[in-house]
Q: What sequence folds into this?
C-alpha cells in the first residue's frame, strides 16, 4: 500500500457499519473467511453482510440504498500549501489543484544575471497525485489556459510550468525546477545561485515545477496566479475476462475496475480473494449502461465512503460470499436465480412493507459534477406530474453522486431512482402507481446458495401473485437459519414513461 493512502483513507478509524447482525463478520451465509480476517488483521474491521449494503437507506433498499447521500458542494478544487495534507488520488477525469510542498522566492535576474528592478521570482513544487497520471490535458494559470511548450512545459507571459511524470525515485528540487531564461519566454535547467539543493521531492508522485515572475511595484502581475490542471488520472489494472485481471496498468473509468483498485491498493485484498467473474459481469453491465466513475480523492475519508461513492455511479453492491469479494450491479433483464414457495419460508417469518412517507418522492434531484462549469455542482431533475397529482403535493428527494461527470449518466440514474421508489408493475408487466414491496423472511440452509444481488421469484400465499425480488442482504445464524431481505424487482424501473429502456 502506498504511503499516501493512509492519510487519504483514514485507515486507522475504518469501521463498516452492520447491515444485519454485528456478530456476522463478512458473512453472507458463511462464517468469517480467511480473506475477511486478513483484512481485519490489518487494522480494518469489516462488520455485516456487505461492505456497503442496504442499511444505507430504509427497508426499501431502492434509490437511497444505491447512492451516496453524503453532501458535496461541488466547490472548486483549490491549490493548497501544506506539508501535512494528503496527496490526491484521481480516478477518471478531473480538474484539480495540487498541494504545494515547497516554495522559494528571490530577486528576479535579467539576461545579464543582474537584479531586474522590483520583480521577484517565485518557485514551487506542486504534488498532483500519488500515482502515475494517464494524461495531463490542460494547465491553467488562474482562468487562463496555458500554452504547451516542449519537454512537457506550459507557459504564459509571467508563469512557467513543467509537468514531471511519476517516478519511483526521489528527486532533488534544484534539478527539477524551471529557471527563467534570457529571452523571458521559456524556462529550463537549474540555477546554482539558488540555495535549496537539499530539498527533495518524494518518490512515487506526479508533480508540477512552477516558476512565476511577479512585480512588487508596477501594475503588471502584482500577485501569484493559482495553478490548476485537468487530468486523466490513475492507471489501474483492468479485468480482461471472467477469470483474468491484467498485470499491466491502463486508464479506466469503469466502476468495476476502480473498485478493484480500491480493494487491492487501498485495502490490500489479494486477487485470490476476488470473484473475478462477478466483477467482469459488472464491468460489462456498466459499459452497456454508459456508467463511468470520476473521483478526485483530495481529502481524508474512510474507505467505506469512498467505495460508496463508486457504487453510487452504477447502482452497485459489494459483499463477501464463499470466501470471495463479489460485485454486482442492479440492472435490467436480470435472470431469476431460483423460485421459492411458501414451503421455503419458515413459519410466519415473511414480513412485507411499503415505503414510508419519507420515500414518496415525486420529484427527484440528482447532483453531479459538471466539467463544462469548472467542475462545480450541477443537477438534473426528474419529476412526475402524474404522481404529483396522485399525491396532491410535490415531494422532493435530492441525491448527491460525486463520481458522475455528465448529464446523460445523471439523468439515467435519476429517473431509475424515482421509478424504484414509486412504481411497480402488474402481472402483465405494465407500470402501475404502486410502491414496490420490501420483504424479509427466514429460510433454511437449502437456500444457502442465494446471495446479494440475486433475483428470485416468490410464490407465497400472502402475495397476490408470483413476484420477483432483488436480494439486498442475507445473514445466517448459528443454527443455519438464513434471513433474507429483498425489494421488489421490476423491469419497469429501468424504463421511461414511454416504456423505452433507460439503460
A:
Amino acid at each position: 500500500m502506498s504511503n499516501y493512502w493512509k492519510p487519504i483513507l483514514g485507515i486507522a478509524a475504518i469501521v463498516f457499519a452492520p447491515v444485519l447482525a454485528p456478530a456476522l463478520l463478512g458473512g453472507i451465509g458463511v462464517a468469517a473467511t480467511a480473506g475477511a480476517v486478513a483484512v481485519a488483521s490489518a487494522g480494518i474491521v469489516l462488520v455485516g453482510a456487505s461492505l456497503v449494503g442496504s442499511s444505507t437507506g430504509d427497508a426499501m433498499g431502492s434509490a437511497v440504498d444505491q447512492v451516496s447521500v453524503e453532501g458535496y458542494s461541488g466547490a472548486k478544487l483549490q491549490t493548497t500549501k501544506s506539508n501535512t495534507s494528503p496527496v490526491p488520488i484521481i480516478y477518471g477525469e478531473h480538474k484539480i489543484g495540487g498541494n504545494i510542498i515547497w516554495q522559494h522566492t528571490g530577486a528576479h535576474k535579467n539576461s545579464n544575471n543582474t537584479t531586474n528592478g522590483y520583480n521577484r521570482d517565485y518557485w514551487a513544487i506542486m504534488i498532483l497525485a500519488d500515482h502515475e497520471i494517464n494524461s495531463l490535458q490542460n494547465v491553467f494559470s488562474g482562468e487562463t489556459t496555458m500554452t504547451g511548450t516542449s519537454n512537457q512545459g506550459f507557459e504564459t507571459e509571467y508563469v512557467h510550468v513543467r509537468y514531471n511524470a511519476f517516478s519511483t525515485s526521489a528527486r532533488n528540487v534544484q534539478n527539477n525546477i524551471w529557471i527563467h531564461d534570457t529571452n523571458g519566454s521559456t524556462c529550463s535547467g537549474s540555477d546554482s545561485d539558488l540555495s535549496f539543493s537539499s530539498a527533495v521531492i518524494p518518490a512515487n508522485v506526479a508533480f508540477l515545477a512552477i516558476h512565476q515572475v511577479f512585480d512588487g511595484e508596477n501594475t503588471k502581475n502584482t500577485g501569484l496566479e493559482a495553478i490548476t490542471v485537468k487530468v486523466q488520472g490513475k492507471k489501474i489494472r483492468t479485468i480482461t475476462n471472467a477469470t483474468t485481471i491484467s498485470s499491466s496498468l491502463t486508464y479506466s473509468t469503469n466502476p468495476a475496475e476502480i473498485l478493484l483498485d480500491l480493494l487491492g491498493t487501498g485495502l490490500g485484498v489479494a486477487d485470490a480473494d476476488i470473484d473475478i467473474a462477478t466483477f467482469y459481469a459488472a464491468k460489462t453491465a456498466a459499459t452497456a449502461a454508459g456508467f463511468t466513475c470520476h473521483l478526485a480523492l483530495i481529502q481524508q475519508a474512510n474507505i467505506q465512503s469512498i467505495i460508496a461513492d463508486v457504487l453510487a455511479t452504477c447502482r452497485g453492491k459489494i459483499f463477501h460470499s464463499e470466501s470471495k469479494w463479489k460485485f454486482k450491479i442492479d440492472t435490467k433483464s436480470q435472470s431469476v436465480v431460483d423460485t421459492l414457495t411458501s414451503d421455503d419460508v419458515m413459519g410466519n417469518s415473511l414480513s412485507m412493507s411499503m415505503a414510508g412517507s419519507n420515500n414518496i418522492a415525486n420529484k427527484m434531484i440528482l447532483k453531479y459534477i459538471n466539467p463544462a462549469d469548472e467542475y462545480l455542482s450541477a443537477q438534473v431533475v426528474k419529476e412526475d406530474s402524474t404522481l404529483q397529482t396522485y399525491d396532491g403535493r410535490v415531494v422532493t428527494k435530492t441525491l448527491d453522486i460525486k463520481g458522475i461527470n455528465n448529464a446523460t449518466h445523471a439523468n439515467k440514474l435519476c429517473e431509475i431512482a424515482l421509478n424504484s421508489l414509486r412504481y411497480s408493475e402488474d402481472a402483465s408487466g405494465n407500470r402501475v402507481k404502486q410502491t414496490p414491496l420490501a420483504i424479509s423472511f427466514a429460510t433454511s440452509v437449502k437456500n444457502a446458495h442465494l446471495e446479494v444481488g440475486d433475483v428470485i421469484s416468490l410464490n407465497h400465499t400472502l402475495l397476490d401473485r408470483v413476484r420477483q425480488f432483488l436480494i439486498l442482504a442475507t445473514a445466517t445464524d448459528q443454527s443455519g437459519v438464513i434471513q433474507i431481505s429483498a425489494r421488489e424487482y421490476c423491469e419497469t424501473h429501468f424504463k421511461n414513461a414511454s416504456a423505452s429502456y433507460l439503460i
In short: Residues 407-422 form the longest helix (16 residues).
